[in-house]
Specification:
CATH architecture of the largest domain: Up-down Bundle
Organism: Sphingomonas lutea
Strand content: 5-15%
Keywords: ATP-binding, Cell membrane, Membrane, Nucleotide-binding, Transmembrane, Transmembrane helix, Transport
Membrane topology: Multi-pass membrane protein
Number of helices: 20
Structural class: alpha/beta
Oligomer: single chain
CATH topology of the largest domain: ABC transporter transmembrane region fold
Number of domains: 2
Main location: membrane
Largest sheet: 6 strands, mixed
Mean pLDDT: 83
Distance between the termini: 52 Å
Number of strands: 10
CATH superfamily of the largest domain: ABC transporter type 1, transmembrane domain
CATH class of the largest domain: Mainly Alpha
Order of helices and strands: HHHHHHHHHHHEEEHEEHEHHHHEHEHEEH
Shape: elongated
Bound molecules: adenosine-5'-diphosphate, magnesium ion
InterPro entries: AAA+_ATPase, ABC1_TM_dom, ABC1_TM_sf, ABC_transporter-like_ATP-bd, ABC_transporter-like_CS, P-loop_NTPase, Type_1_exporter
């Protein structure tokens, strides 16, 4: 999918984002956020609210000037009316700002929730090759802080821009009507504002990108560190890990201080320019008032409008930095959302005749992106209900074969057939539905055992869960846990032993009643006794299914009725004498 160039997006078509892999031009913000009519209506309401505030705000200096003017000239009657109008304006502003803030929070919360749901759904449907290429922390950063920045930018910053412009333009128009000659002073300071924003903006641009990167790295590091706590302890790496993390967050601190200083300088700078302009006005206006060409009211109003003008001008200058930040977030988000997801096809298992589980690898060649070939012409036929063991050295490509069978990746050459059908044409869900995979690491999540087993099949009943647990020989140890099936097992099943984890992984695979079952070194965690018991039990559970065993364990080999090896990227049948040797050692 290519990303359309977008005149509508906030970056105004500027292509240069100094960023790693996100050099693609971002999608328009409105497309990213999927702003529908309802959203637009809400955004419009916000624009109306902020604009209404700004209109009322424009009345205030006029009235305040008038009030002061009448005080100076001592017209008691006019005073009352002016105070009344002014009070009403202040109440209106207070109410409007409550409404605006309330609506803004709702809007940005809603946008954030929608964006979160959307990106979560998208990311987990992206192919394995994508996940290989992107760091997890990087993705976490996009899925959390980046989209938060973006939704806030739209719902809080962007919607207020029309009102700010209105305030600025309105103030200037009124100033012109009060005294065109004095008002002409204002355009003369515009270049100064422009210059200030320009200088500041250039510095902010690079900082925004660097801050995002450091933020993402900090998230990545904490995520990683939490995952490898036991290794950190075992190898005494606490200090080194801390150092790594510290460097990143301190760098982030430095960047934020630099950014903060620029913003901190911006406001006083703009105030200063405005104050000098006001002084200039006073200088010139003094004569006008004393000459009677200008009333005191007009002068006061004029000054108040000048003060009012500095606010939107200041925030418009801030906008520049905010746009830089949003632009970075947008680019990253676009890059992720532009990635095509896997098409899993319709879930149609019920309409299919029961799968038999025959598998054929036909001249399969495969290399991971940017790596040397792993498989170079794999040919392998596995009959339905056959049990085959695949041996091979570490890194020979056994898991790669399984990954191809599951279609986590596709081969560059050749094809894989399941029940006679090319696996690329049968639909991912139809393919994956008939395979029960017990992977090397069990991939459990922090929930109950029941929930972890039920993960194997959508809508699994209690009976199915219990049956699967029994078949996987998990009932005994489950019974010994404090809450049985309802015991929560910790992150990745942290609170279970390796063998227990694998039994749950097997129960999870069995619950979908797959025609094909694969153990990818999944018995490696058992002790010998445990393995034998496991194998005994498996004989029942595996009955009638095609079984692929990726293993080195002799006991598991006893399960197989055929043994092949994967060497130099190809499959070789074990000769009879070699086979006898393997079986004897079993
Ligand atoms: N996601 C990946 N990206 C790139 N290379 C990989 C990936 N996974 C594994 N490899 C490499 O592919 C080769 C085969 O790995 P694998 O199939 O896991 O071996 P094994 O036979 O031990 O299961 C190894 O050299 C490994 O380094
Ligand atoms: Mg492997």
């Amino acid at each position: 999918m290519s990303i359309a160039r977008c005149p509508a997006c906030i970056c105004g078509g500027l292509p240069n984002l100094q960023d790693r892999d996100d050099s693609t031009h971002p999608m328009p913000i409105f497309r990213i956020l999927r702003l529908n009519r309802q959203h637009m209506a809400r955004l419009l309401l916000l624009v109306i609210l902020t604009t209404a505030s700004s209109v009322v705000l424009l009345v205030v200096p006029w009235m305040a000037g008038h009030l002061l003017g009448t005080m100076v000239t001592g017209q008691e009657g006019a005073l009352k009316g002016a105070v009344g109008v002014l009070a009403a304006c202040l109440v209106a502003i207070a109410m409007l700002s409550f409404l605006t803030a309330d609506r803004m929070v709702r809007m940005s919360a809603a946008l954030l929730a929608e964006l979160r749901e959307r990106i979560f759904d998208h990311v987990q449907r992206l192919p394995m090759a994508f996940h290989d290429s992107r760091g997890k922390g990087d993705m976490l950063a996009v899925m959390t802080i980046e989209i938060a920045k973006l939704s806030e930018f739209v719902a809080v910053t962007l919607v207020a821009v029309p009102a700010r412009l209105l305030t600025a333009i309105g103030a200037m128009i009124v100033m012109f009507t009060i005294d065109a000659r004095l008002a002409l002073l204002i355009p003369t300071i515009v270049p100064l504002f422009y210059l200030a924003t320009k200088i500041v903006g250039r510095r902010l641009q690079g900082l925004a990108v660097q801050i995002q990167q450091a933020d993402a790295r900090a998230i990545a590091l904490s995520d990683e560190a939490l995952q490898i706590v036991p290794a950190t302890k075992a190898f005494g790496q606490e200090a080194a890990q801390y150092d790594r993390y510290r460097q990143t967050v301190r760098k982030l601190e430095g960047l934020m201080v630099r950014q903060g200083r620029i913003y901190a300088a911006l406001d006083p700078l703009i105030s200063l320019i405005a104050a000098f302009a006001a002084l200039a006005v006073l200088w010139f206006a003094g004569h006008d008032v004393s000459d009677g060409r200008m009333t005191a009211s007009e002068l006061f109003s004029f000054m108040f409008y000048a003060a009012l003008l500095t606010r939107p001008v200041g925030s418009l200058a801030h906008l520049y930095g905010q746009i830089q930040t949003a632009r970075g977030a947008l680019a990253r988000l676009s890059a992720v959302l532009a990635e095509p997801t896997e098409d899993v096809g319709a879930a149609q298992a019920s309409r299919r005749p029961r799968a038999h589980g025959a598998i054929e690898f036909r001249n399969v060649h495969f290399a991971y992106a940017g790596r040397d070939p792993v498989l170079t012409g794999v040919d392998l036929r596995v009959g339905a209900a056959e049990r085959i063991a695949i041996l091979g050295a570490n890194g020979a490509g056994k898991t790669a074969m399984i990954n191809l069978l599951m279609r986590y990746y596709d081969p560059q050459v050749g094809a894989i057939f399941v029940d006679g059908e090319d696996s690329r044409t049968m639909g991912l869900s139809a393919l994956r539905d008939r395979i029960g995979l017990v992977p090397q690491s069990a991939l459990l999540f922090n929930a109950t055992i029941r929930e972890n087993i039920a993960f194997g099949a959508v809508g699994a009943s209690q009976q199915m869960i219990d049956d699967a647990a029994r078949l996987a020989q998990a009932l005994d140890f489950v019974a010994s846990l404090p809450y049985g099936m309802d015991t929560v097992i910790g992150d990745c099943g942290l609170r279970l032993s390796g063998g227990q984890r694998q039994r749950i992984a097997l129960a999870r695979a069995l619950i979908k009643d797959p025609a094909i079952i694969i153990f990818d070194e999944a018995t490696s965690m058992f002790d010998d006794e445990g393995e034998e018991a496991f194998i005994d039990a498996c004989n029942d559970a595996l009955h009638g299914r095609t079984v692929i065993l990726v293993t080195h364990r002799p006991a598991t080999l006893a399960l197989a009725n055929r043994i092949v090896t994967l060497e130099d990227g190809r499959i070789r049948e074990l000769r009879a004498d070699e086979r006898r040797l393997q079986k004897v050692s079993a």
